[in-house]
Amino acid sequence: WRTSAKLAVRASTSGVRIGLFVPKTHDVVRIHGCAAHHASINAALEAISTACAAAKIHGYDEASGKGDLRYVKLEVQRSTGLVQVTLVWNASSEEQAGRPLRKLVSALTEQEMWHSIWANFNAADKHTSRILAFEKEAAWREGLAVVELGLGPTLRWKALAPGSDVQDYGGVHSDCLGARRIIAGPTLDADDRFISQANLCAFERIVAAVRRFVPSGSAVVELYGGVGTIGLHLADTVGRPGMARSG
């Protein structure tokens, strides 16, 4: 199953339409009940749609630049089936998002399916194609309350929803979003600036196959390795490990 999904949210007569863009357009087709998604993602999408209707949330309208919710990012914690959701909000700050965001979070937390709830504030215009904003002023928030985590010069995190436990995030995110234990080996932390695999179960099998094909003691170079997901899971089979970083 795909345990990760980034889906567009656009305006509709019912308030929001959540799904994928039709090829070569920014028209959204609903993707509820997708057979490729983990069952928890499908359940989460239904819950988000219901909560948006209850809280009277409007999907983003590219033509006018108005609306509340632009995208949702969903990650399943495979050990529990709980879902971490990031609400990409059409605002530059929590203050600008205001009461609609608080109402949606309140509606969502009536369900017990959430690992945690986050907001990313992205007020970019329609000519900016990125889903998530990473500027300091755009900020990240988890929930609507208390704990801030310092993650360097560009990101700020704030704990705000039930189930939030700062220790659980390992400095970035939880197991279901960032820290991936693929096979016997290191747990890796990666925030949303890094590309991660949508189907971790299949990716685990790929990593295991790569290990089988690499003779013990080999010299291995991993190019475009990101946070080193594959290379670090070969570290115990090769010679002296090393890392070169550029950029």
From TrEMBL:
Coiled coil: none
Superkingdom classification of source: Eukaryota
Protein name per Swiss-Prot or TrEMBL: tRNA(Phe) (4-demethylwyosine(37)-C(7)) aminocarboxypropyltransferase
Species assigned in the record: Symbiodinium pilosum
